[in-house]
Design goal:
Elements (H helix, E strand, L loop, with lengths): L3 E5 L4 E4 L2 E4 L4 E5 L5 E3 L12 H14 L4 H18 L3 H15 L3 H19 L6 H8 L1
Antiparallel strand pairs: 1-4, 2-3, 2-5
Helix pairs in contact: 1-2, 1-4, 2-5, 3-4
Length: 142
């Protein structure tokens, strides 16, 4: 059996299967079974969802943070993902979005979030007027 070790600093939070835990001191947790989790440092707040990829991230994180409402969040993810995929013309983003969707279909939600974070610089360049028309990306994602 493999285990997962999570290290928390004093005051840091971790979201485990819908529960929020806060460490009152430096602590190491060893998780011995499958668990959905997010560290506080990876949680995106609603006011930070200022770009299409950040909006997608927010929907996926809802699946991890609130398992009771995961089906509704999955449905919203699917709708948003399809609209975003159609709107994107940048090949790097298209490939990244496809990889994210594969991760989601295999219920590897944490991996999907990691892939999105890796695409932030590409999206930023596009939104600055780089490789793809900004209006096409923003209109579909709203």
């Amino acid at each position: 059996m493999s285990s997962l070790r999570i290290f928390l600093r004093p005051g840091e939070k971790v979201f485990l299967n819908g529960a929020v835990l806060r460490a009152d001191r430096k602590v190491s947790l060893e998780v011995l079974n499958d668990v959905s989790f997010m560290l506080e440092s990876h949680v995106l707040q609603a006011e930070e969802t200022t770009t299409p990829l950040r909006q997608l991230y927010f929907l996926i994180q809802a699946i991890l943070i609130n398992p009771a409402e995961a089906e509704q969040a999955r449905s919203l993810y699917r709708e948003f993902y399809e609209a975003l995929s159609e709107a994107v013309s940048n090949s790097q983003l298209k490939l990244g979005l496809a990889a994210i969707d594969v991760s989601m279909s295999q219920e590897r939600t944490f991996e999907a979030l990691k892939l999105i974070r890796q695409l932030y610089p590409v999206e930023e360049e596009i939104l600055k007027g780089g490789a793809a028309p900004v209006h096409a990306l923003q209109q579909e994602a709203v």
